[in-house]
Amino acid sequence: MRKVKLSLLGKVILAIAAGVLLGQFLPVSIARIFVTFNSLFGSFLSFSIPLIIVGLVAPAIGELGKGAGKLLFITALIAYGSTLFSGFFTYFASDTIFPHILPANSELSNIDNPEDFLLLPYFKVAMPPIMDIMTALIMSFVIGLGISSISGTKLKGVANDFKDIVDLLISKVIIPLLPLHIFGIFLNMTVSGQVFQIIFLFLKVIGIIFALHILLLLIQFTIAGAVAKRNPFKLLINMLPAYMTALGTQSSAATIPVTMNQAIKNGVRENVAIFTVPLCATIHLAGSTMKIVSCALAIMIMSGMPFDFATIASFVMMLGITMVAAPGVPGGAIMAALGLLQTMLGFNETAQALMIALYIAMDSFGTACNVTGDGAIAVIVDKIAGKLNRTEKSHEERYAEIYNETV
Q1: Among 154, 201, 219, 185, which residue's Cα sits nearest to residue 352?
Q2: CA–CA separation, 279 vs 381, rounded Å?
Q3: pLDDT tens per residue, range 147-169
Q4: Residue partners of 407: CB distance under 8 A and separation at least 6
């Protein structure tokens, strides 16, 4: 009999359900065992975040600095612009909608001081990180830009090896333990009598984000259709196989063959699709950015945490860069963003755990939005590449005329 492997989303849903169910009757003394695990895991996560940032961001920036010249720069610029648009579009939409459906909750507002309403662990173990988040980010940029500028390969090899270690840390340790961590969080909230209202509010947030990501895709393909002078709805419909594949795989990388095939069906030249789609699978995470920004705003509104446009704008711009380094595993984008949530928005361990649970609940839709949007970028880049080729040919023809006249 074939063994059925439960997806990360399935494990998270099971963990939330188990936490809510067992929290109804589990003795406080037993519940505190899981709370103690949460404390240890949260400390380890805080220790790991700077390592994750350095291990992922530095080699990612180093790789982007080489290769395809103008077309690479243009594609990266369009992808970053799309990610920024997604972040700001989500902010304005969420800031308009969420206050009406997510009134600040007097109990959840204690999320800044969880010890006021949650169970305490039996003991804590301090695991101080080797550097703070901003130091890790700056160090990553310096190393990444240095790798892309120098001719040597030793530092690049070290950075790539460290990236492999971080990938293993995320995929073999952190991601497998996340469901247990989320179980402990919801068990704690259930024992404290708060979980049902939070889950109800989460369902509202998920519904709004689903509607926003459909609207974002319509905007992306409207722009692509206008640039390429093509029917945007036909372009979007042609990308539906990639969308549906991403829903199942929860991975932009695993969906690359389907995305490329559908981009070619949209009239993108094969050489452009081969270049653009794999690159965008790494650097274009507009859907993931939408989920992170909207989920963060939802939690901040529910918890009564202050925020303003300047703070969110800085967060979105840094998030657009950090998303380049998101590892290709389910939940990888939120792991790469935890450092920014902690330092720029002030998220503590409880808020981060809620953020992870809310994000993973929509991971499939975010990935589907990412890869479908890659098809829109491929159409735009194909149009630009055609113009660049015509310009280069006209220059060559002019040089030939000058040469013939000289001779």
Answers
A1: 185
A2: 12
A3: 877 777 888 889 889 988 988 88
A4: none
Contact yes or no for 226/60 (Cβ under 8 A):
no
Tell the burial category of 22 from Cβ atoms under 10 Å away from its Cβ (0-12, 13-18, 19+). middle
Q: List the one residue out of 214, 252, 259 whose CA is nearest residue 238.
A: 259
Structural contact between residues 124 and 32, judged by C-beta atoms closer than 8 angstroms: no
Determine the residue type at 84.
L
Model confidence, pTM: 0.69
Domain edges within the chain: 8-406
Residue in the block written with tokens 């859907």:
287
End-to-end CA distance of the chain: 80
DSSP one-letter string for 182-201: HHHHHHHHHHTT-HHHHHHH
**8-406 maps to which CATH number?**
1.10.3860
Work out the angle at residue 192's Cα, subtended by the Cα atoms of residues 330 and 174, and round it to the nearest 5 degrees.
25
Q: How far apart are CA 372 and CA 252, in angstroms?
A: 10
How many Å apart are CA 44 and CA 52, to the nearest integer? Answer: 12
For 57-109, how does the pLDDT look when each residue is reduced to its tens digit (9 = 90+)?
Answer: 677 667 655 544 577 778 888 988 999 999 999 999 988 988 888 766 544 55
Which stretches of 355-394 are assigned E, i.e. beta strand?
none
Rg of the Cα atoms in the chain: 23
**145, 66 in Cβ contact below 8 A?**
no
